[in-house]
Specification:
With 69 residues, this protein is mostly helical. The chain has a domain of 45 residues. Helices cover 90% and strands 0% of the residues. The longest helix is centred in the C-terminal third of the chain and has 42 residues.
Length: 69
Amino acid sequence: MKLNKLALSVLLLTTFIGLTACQEKGPAEKAGESIDNAVENMGDKIEDATDDAGDKVEEAGDAIEDKTD
């Protein structure tokens, strides 16, 4: 019975220490998040630019179609 209580105590203590250790972000994690955000923003800008270019190509196609009708 003492072994079970000891094992439970060790498990709870280990879990508590593990959870508190994960609370603070180190410099590598902060840098990683910064890089992730930058890449995501760049991807959004590229997507917006390709959408705009696609719209302009579609408008040009429509204008050509109107002129040839």
